[in-house]
Amino acid sequence: MKIPHPIQYQGSKRNLAATILEYFPANVQTVIEPFAGTAAISVATAYQKKANRFLINDLNKPLLDLLQLIIETPEEIANAYEKLWHEQQLDSIGHYFSVRDEFNCSGDSRLFLYLLARCAKGAVRYNNAGYMNQSPDKRRKGTLPATMRKNIQGVSALLKGKCEFSSLDYKVVLKQVVNTDLVYMDPPYQGVCGDKDSRYYAGIHHGEFIESLAELNAQGISYLVSYDGKTGNKNYGEKLPNTLNLTCVEINAGRSSQATLLGRQEITFESLYISPALAKRLLQPHVKKAREVMVTESCYA
What does pLDDT average to over the chain? Predict the structure, then answer.
């Protein structure tokens, strides 16, 4: 079967998951996502049977609760989505704004799934008060209920009974990590670290994040970080410092939609950083040849 994805979320790593998983070692006990988002990496990991346990964490509590509903009570959330989807038929735009208002008051994750399926470009936006303020996509009414149910059931089949859920600061989560775990981190873009940005429920502080990575290195923890990138001559954020001794791989993320609109054929590359402990594990003789493409210079050029 195809890897199921109920949540269409701008910035999700679902399209890059297969490439990222090439840098997963053997014998992983638990995969930990401190910035889980839609948990695309955990879903793909379960699909490829590369781990049996998962810690899914995100500071965005409604999103985290939605993931838990999808995984643990799939029929409940599928039924709630189907009901909301059918209720929109007479006035889909007005219905969307009504549901959004109700969600901003209650934080009910059953409402959030419908909003994610209907919002413009799958791009959640928040105002300064933390309320969702993205408009609906006026060209479409969201994923069909039957398709949504199939995707929800698929994710549940992969992850039910295997997950621990939390909505904590990433630094608290990293304190729980042990050497048999693998941590995958996809934090907010550096350009918004330390500041409120409409694309994120919360940002992080760049310097504090580097300190956390240094602590993981001192403990010999295996981790991967998706953190910056470039399109053409434009770089997105600072590279993580050489003092962390990370291996950096550039992943082809495809053609930039913004560049295409401007008539330019530019490709976006995202940086994937590999911790020293993980790089050592990947260089063991049994590691498959595909991982030999690791590049140590290009991200730092």
Answer: 85
User: Is residue 245's pLDDT more than 60?
Assistant: yes
Number of neighbours of residue 197 by Cβ within 10 angstroms:
16
CATH class of 1-301: alpha beta
**At residue 301, does pLDDT exceed 90?**
no
For residues 39 and 157, what is the distance between their CA atoms, to the nearest angstrom? Answer: 15
Question: What is the arithmetic mean of pLDDT over 63-91?
Answer: 96
CB 298 within 8 A of CB 248: yes
Burial class (CB in 10 A: 0-12, 13-18, 19+), 55: buried
3-state helix, strand, coil in the chain (%, to 5): 40, 15, 40
Model confidence at 160: pLDDT above 90? yes
Which structure tokens are listed for 142? 């969201």
pTM (two decimals): 0.86
The backbone torsions φ and ψ at residue 251, rounded to the nearest 5 degrees and listed phi first, read -105, 130
Name the 3-class secondary structure at 274: strand
Which alpha helices (DSSP H) does 119-248 contain, by range? 145-159, 170-174, 206-218
